[in-house]
Target: DDE-1 domain-containing protein
Amino acid sequence: MDETPMYFDLVPGKTVDREGTKSVLIRTTGAEKRHITVVLAVAGSGDVLPPMIIFKGKRTLDLKAPKGWLIAVQEKAWMDETLMLRWINEIYLPFTGRERSLLVMDSFRAHITDDVKKQLRRGNVVPAIIPGGCTSKLQPLDVSINKPVKSYLRRSWMEYIRDATNALQSSDETSNGRIKTASKQIVLDWVINAMDTLKEKRAMIVKSFKVCGISVNLSGSENALIRNDNELNTMDDDSDTEFEDFSPEDLKMAMDKLLETE
Model:
């Protein structure tokens, strides 16, 4: 399991413009610092556990989410001990059925409190705490899953910005000309779409555990997979292009606009 922040404005790191252009304006909603935390968990079998979504705030939110998902609030939209215990009790243990399991996670303080350790022992869970600085090599989510998930989320944000811009409706913009920030429900819908896509990547998830050396065959027959750069580079079929965050429609629209101004 791992926590990953998701910002309400997911500005891409690449743009499309004429060669030599020194600066390119990118339209956003002005919410680049506003974020939620998405708690992801996957299994060596390729299964994707229901996520926990942590919004900033104190009041319970009335949002439409798939069955089994956990929508939580926290003052800073961060994971803390209370939410970690909820995640264990409401998501992880129902998935394992309290059968003996290995839970791989980093050394974030909310993962290793005394109460969390006690609850894991009660649930027949063996925690495997990854030392600091090693998650990029030993955490399946960091190795191959967080990046494509963020890419899926960014595509949804770009579609939102594109549709709002093309609509040219004053009701979609604030007085300062910015597009309205996406609502919590819209952001949650982006996560739902990303998770639906992730569920189709079972082979990638299974391989990520093997590349990290967690689920390789004890006979040694799969040792060649461990930290195999070729395996890492081919695990996500959505990341083999320089403009992975752009859909074909986005690229075509950008090129058409450039041609119109020539």
